[in-house]
């Protein structure tokens, strides 16, 4: 009796798609975070190069 009620509840939960937009957004955020974690060293180096370039150009602009 309890098992059949639990089975029906799980089926209703599985078929319910009201929160699907939220679930998709959470999955997208998780994928982005996992990719960022695996490529964090490369991303960090890229940001450092960008800031070094900005700093160099700023110094050149100030000297002129």
Task: Tell me what the structure shows.
There is one protein chain. The protein is mainly α. Helix content is 89%, strand content 0%. It has three helices and no strands.
What is the number of beta strands? 0
Name the helix and strand elements from N-terminus to C-terminus, one letter apiece: HHH
Number of helices: 3
Taking Cα atoms only, what radius of gyration do you get, to the nearest Å? Answer: 25 Å
Strand content: under 5%
List keywords for this structure.
0% strand, single chain, 64 residues, 3 helices, mainly alpha
Lay out the secondary structure.
Blueprint (H helix, E strand, L loop, with lengths): L1 H14 L4 H19 L1 H24 L1
Keywords: Membrane, Transmembrane, Transmembrane helix
Organism: Paenibacillus campinasensis
InterPro entries: Flp1-like
